[in-house]
Amino acid sequence: MSAITNRHPVIQVKGLVTRIGDRVLHDHIDLDVYQSEVLGVVGGSGSGKSVLLRSIIGLQQPSEGRIEVLGQNVADLDGDDLVRMQIRWGVLFQDGALFGDQTVAENVQIPLREHTDLSQQLMAEIASVKLSMVGLPPDAASKYPAELSGGMRKRAGLARALALDPELLFLDEPTAGLDPISAAQFDELVRDLQRSLRLTVFMVTHDIDTLRATTDRIAVLVDSKLTLGTIATLRNDPNPWIHEYFAGVRGRAALETEKVC
Amino acid sequence: MSTIIRPPAEANAAWYRTERQGDTLRVVVGGFWVIGEARRLDPDLRALDVAGATRVEIDCAALDRLDTIGAWLLLRTKRTLEHHGLVVQPTNVRPEYRALVHTIDFECRAPPVAPPPRYSFTRRLERIGRGLCHALHQGYQLVGFFGLVVFETAATVLQPRRLRVAALFHQMEETGLNALPIIGLLSFLIGVVVAYQGADQLRQFGAEVFTVNLLGVGILRELGGLMAAIIVAGRSGSAFTAQIGTMKVSEELDAIQISGLNMIEVLVLPRLLAIMLTLPLLTFYSNAMGLLGGGVMCYFDLNITIPVFLHQLRDAVAGWTFWVGFIKAPVFAFIIALVGCNQGFQVERNASSVGRHTTQAVVESIFLVIVADAVFSITFSWLGI
User: Fold this and answer.
1) ipTM value for the complex
2) What is the pTM of this model?
3) Which residues span the domain enclosing B336?
4) Does B117 touch chain A (CB under 8 A)?
């Protein structure tokens, strides 16, 4: 894992409370995500991981607390200021969220077409560059999302998220539904892109192999609270859920592979 | 086109200059090579003049910032020059940009994406052909589904225990009872409109009282039943498609099949029977509301009293008039249910497909209902009723 050279937080969550109905999903959560680090967020199903991600990118209003991204409170932004913030982050939704009526290349070109005034030809070149960067074959460009496999859709979604060279990348369960080989390739891809583009990555995941392969730090969302650490520290955590997650059968298996490596 | 992305401040603007040293052309680049500068740099770099040099050196020492698009512009220039037989050498690439340059240089070898040809004659022709084939296939498909449903209906008639009574009543409530307000309101208004327009024309001949005949025949023979059928097609036919389609998307249909249940029996028959039982009743109700609307209009606009109205109506609708409208209803109902359920089964496993097929179900069922109505009209006139 690369050392975090710059301890400047790009995402600051302060005292976040999220209530949905009577349920408290987040109970005064604090979280700093630093520049160029990969942060993994784990937690049981329904623990509010995805809601945390949606809160940070402004899709969900927090009940209490402040969320600052790149030094600005997301909830205060609107109009062009919000767009200016949105082009600095890329989001990969669970199934890619590609627009079904447009080809993969057109999907990647959407942010370019909306927010830049580049020539058609350059946009086509950039789309091709981004699609190659995420490891899609050239013939995938002219296909429609429905014609792609789940793994390819995720790669295409990643290419669209990276279209405007964002500083921040949000990934919602990037390896869910992929076979282990594709998942491992996707992990490697995220790590490579993170290094070459010096991205800050905020990743929600269930996959302990992904955590091991890509993350610098891990945030565990359990009982509406957040615990931060690395795999090594979290496996000795007193909380039974966290202990079971990292020291249970799957956790041990994932960690043993690390020793062999 | 909004351009939120702007070039960086002037002090950081991207620049390049060329220096000739013997056979070598040195291209010195500096500043912020980022997406905001791409528009300015792109045409200049495409037109870069090497002036007979055989070697090109791209000096990146002064680069202050480089993103994917800046890196692509540099590497594209490199490739174009190499393609023309020059030797191109990037130098002084800062360590932090090496990974990016490496990634793009080695992984991005695909040609630019060619946009599909949009508006051409052959494409339009192809679309027409595709549309025709699609329509024919739909017809063929619907006939197959018709056969299947008839077969299953016959099997249920022979074994009435197979009928899902709870589902049937639920569907009857949904398609029949809940449709009463909207059908009542619209039929009432249609009655008002027909009476008003009829009275306006007939008044010229002093034959206002025949407005009642127009109302009686028009509503009972055609409009009442057609209104009910069209509203039910829009309300319930679309609902059938959406319900069955959503079940297909969420793999519930597969679960039904794998549990040894008969899909037609479980999903189609309750809907089909419910709508075939309720649409005749709705037609009756629609007729009544239409006549009521027309009657109210006659009373206030033409001063036709209730006894006169009823007397005139009884003369006008003697014989088959009422039954002509009524016996069409089960056929319309069958068409609506058949098309709605069939479109539901046609849904593919993605969300947008549900919407597309729902629209298609409504259009197709209203179309077929009106075609059936025309066939009935011809048949009745042939039979002399």
Assistant:
1) 0.79
2) 0.73
3) 136-383
4) no
